[in-house]
Amino acid sequence: MKFDTPATTNPIDQLKVVGKPTNRIDGPLKTTGTAPYAYERHDVAANQAYGYVVGSAIAKGRIASMNLEDAEAAPGVLAIVTAANAGKLGKGDFNTAKLLGGPAVDHYHQAIALVVAESFEQARAAAALVRVEYARGKGNFDLAKSLDGAIKPPPSFGTEADSAVGNFAGAFAGAPVQVDARYFTPDHAHAMMEPHASIAAWEGDKLTLWTSNQMIAWSVGDMAKTLGIPKENVRLDSPYVGGGFGGKLFIRADAVLAALGARAAKRPVKVALPRAFMFNNTPHRPATIQRIRLGATAEGKITAIGHESWSGDLPGGGPETAVGQTRLLYAGENRMTAMRLAVLDLPEGNAMRAPGEAPGLMALEIAVDELAEKLGMDPVALRILNDTQVDPEKPERRFSQRQLNECLQIGADKFGWAKRSAKPAQTRDGRWLVGMGVAAAFRNNINGPSAARVRLDKSGVVTVETDMTDIGTGTYTIIAQTAAEMMGLPLDKVVVKLGDSAFPVSAGSGGQWGANSSTAGVYAACVKLREAVAQKLGMNPSDAAFADGKVRSGGRSAALGEAAADGELVAEDRMEYGDLEKTYQQSTFGAHYAEVGVDAMTGEIRVRRMLAVCAAGRILNPKAARSQVIGAMTMGAGAALMEELAVDKRFGFFVNHDLAGYEVPVHADIPHQEVIFLDETDPTTSPMKAKGVGELGICGVAAAVANAVYNATGVRVRNYPITLDKLLGELPDIA
Amino acid sequence: MKSFTYERVATPAAATAAFARAPGARFIAGGTNLLDLMKLEIETPAHLIDVSRLSLDKIEKTDDGGLRIGAMVRNTDLASDARVRRDYGLLSRALVAGASGQLRNKATTAGNLLQRTRCPYFYDTNQPCNKRRPGSGCAAIGGFNRLHAVVGASEACIATHPSDMAVAMRALDAVVETVDAAGKARAIPLSGFYRAPGATPHLETVLAPGELITAVTLPRPVGGTHIYHKVRDRASYAFALISVGAIVQKDGSGRVALGGVGYQPWRVEAAEAELPRGAKAVTAGLLAGAKTTHENAYKLPLVERTLAGVLAQARG
Ligand SMILES: Cc1cc2nc3c(=O)[nH]c(=O)nc-3n(C[C@H](O)[C@H](O)[C@H](O)COP(=O)(O)OP(=O)(O)OC[C@H]3O[C@@H](n4cnc5c(N)ncnc54)[C@H](O)[C@@H]3O)c2cc1C
Ligand code: SF4
Known about the structure:
Strand content of chain A: 25-35%
Oligomer: heterodimer
Strand order of the largest sheet of chain A: 4-6-2-13-10-11-12
Bound molecules: flavin-adenine dinucleotide, iron/sulfur cluster
Largest sheet of chain A: 7 strands, mixed
């Protein structure tokens, strides 16, 4: 099915199932521990051996020698895989550094060997016996010192590094009110609960990989490319994913090494990355240094808006696209954005929840707060004044839907924004300095082609099959809701099967495109199934009504299952997209409000209340969407106050590589959170009229917290995370 | 993790005898620290002597009106003991500020005193660390050391002792009771229990190899207002950036011990005389001779400000 004109009324609009707050259909499996995650799939292949990864002890250089004697002689050892014995390996399209390094080493904890043994303990113990001598090379690990050599990167995913409209320099210089500041965001780790893990088994030259992955088709392709085998010989299965946040968009060392280990040991091998490897072996969100310049009239109209961002990556990597939202979020005639990329020898950077916008808004939305203060304007009013309903770089393109102002206004109202003192450091609650902050949330909407197969059996049960993944987001449930709505069934008559590369190729989970795209694919397949059902029952497909498990047409009624009485009915289709997104700019919007308390003595910062108001198209399952947004708000609070991969600039690695050292919020950090979704449908996105919310939820949160800290204390911190050591010197004197 | 042998013992005498048979063995209590270190091969004992079921799990009154806390009393049980909560509130508060409920259910009094530093370089066997591999250097100096010591450190090591419980015990004048491999018992005041790193940061306490902690005693209660303020980047489940444990009497006199600033819970009795004059004066004495790095200098004002807050709270 091709989607190239805005959607009109369709069966989804009945909203009997879609749009209702719905418990996860996979919830009981997860809460009872019976949803098998990759490493726990003991039943899928007999005689599984265990692999343990050896990571490089240096960040840059060469392996001078590798002595495997002791490891090979250790109890239980079956095989050891290294670059020297693995045979020729290719590199996938999506990873920057090799997944099995050596003799050249590209980053710290790059995998350089896999030890396979009978038990996990034996593999781990033997891995420690692999003796490696290194020749250290000189690496570059300091972004701040690399700005001069940074280059203009080539366009990525069709996005140019630079953009310019009007005369930014002139307009900024002439603006009566200006902000010009630099902002620093650190490297972030995905730090999902489930580490990367895979079980690999070969049958002849065919590989099956049970793994934890967000993008099945991409990863089949990269596995095949890395191993130098045809795609048809690779099967991936990833029905449950214990969090990804972008860290599992691509295959990683666990997958490749499990496959190589299984080949070497001639039996199935399972590999999980140890927790430390999550930080230095797998990708992370790269640090940025951003310069923002805003020029405005005395009345608060933005006339000049400039945003530059520097980030680093390994050779061949890409930039953190932190300026993207600045091209679209506010009006202003004169504009410039630029991204520059430095070569760093730290582990590779890549996508993490809302790549680009998340760090970009961390900077931009502080700058807007600074502008409001300089103008003596309320920051909500300033944002509303500078709203635009068209793409400011290409005014002929309208936003398909844009309710940013509504989000801001409703939020201000619900949050009690009027009680905020415009002057900072005025509100005291015992020993706490209290402040409120606001930020706009913005994240683009992306739609991707997505296919699904639906089967109807004679008992009237519909089974959906697609290689779509559920990374904890609730995909199983919204897909079931979509099929139930389309086929006129209750939820318990729908079975959903996901994550298997044997199923039709979906859009996968990433970039908050999963919900709308994958359900649109199911919609397309269900349209075909409805036609097949009507035909089978001798009804007119154009007026057959599907409801309550029945099909009705022309005064006749039949149970849905009757259409499959003499055999299962199967339909498959793929939703594809025309160029509506060229005509319309599709984005999601929101407003984040935060209240913090800052201990006047110690500078400890604690979030007190948070509110998100989101306008993101049709909300397919308000309960799951709310969970997505509160999870994202939590991650945003972490980015504001504690998350930072500490770079050792001498040795070139992230030092705090465990969950004690890399702090993410715990329950005690997360107080009252509220989420409001505006009633919205966007007919330009798909027949579902939905968009994504899972990334919108994090966009702007950190800046709202940062602005609240400023409002509480009068101390402006532009260097995340905002930890107490950055406030202490400027807090009020103690008596 | 290296493979190891394991035995469980029933009496303190059996524990020390077992050590005599297997020098280089380690006692294991709750295992919440030792097992993590073994998995990473930071500790590689060939033999474990499980002391967790010794009947050293009681809290009893001592003859002079104090308390004897068995070495195997769990942190949870100690924190919730009615006498501790009434008479040694500082200890109870420090305990519940540490780790998590699950960990405190396993962690023991002795194990808590002997837990090792949380210096991230200590935890990464690829990095130089004098404490882990004597003579290899100290990666924290010149590296990521926002969490490191400002007092008592040496050129060889700037690690802190991470225990919250020990801070309270130091303020409460705790004494560690032990029995050695020869069966000889001794009592070591906590003030003299930890060794300054000097050139030998791998030697952390005055305990001899195989010396078993049997109890910690607290003298009779001293009254006063007990406050433990642990300062950290997140609200729970994090080690202290710094912590202040204080006992403040009605007349303004009292005691103060600090966590997160040195290789041991930090108390300077002479500085306590300044308590009536306020936080600045006390901190000057407590942190005299402090040496900071580019990343941890904030700890000095932080101690002073936190103490000021604690004293204000004590005044009510
Ligand atoms: C995630 C995490 C967070 C934590 N957070 C905090 C925190 O915020 N604050 C805090 O204070 N602590 C914290 N801890 C540390 C925790 O308090 C310690 O791990 C615990 O107290 C150790 O006690 P244990 O009985 O488990 O010791 P074990 O791990 O069994 O032993 C520790 C050491 O003591 C030795 N030992 C044990 N018993 C004896 C004995 N009777 N005589 C001689 N030697 C003995 C062992 O040989 C070993 O060397 C945390 C730990 C973890 C894992
Ligand atoms: S501070 Fe001490 S524990 Fe940390 S690296 Fe240096 S020597 Fe090792």
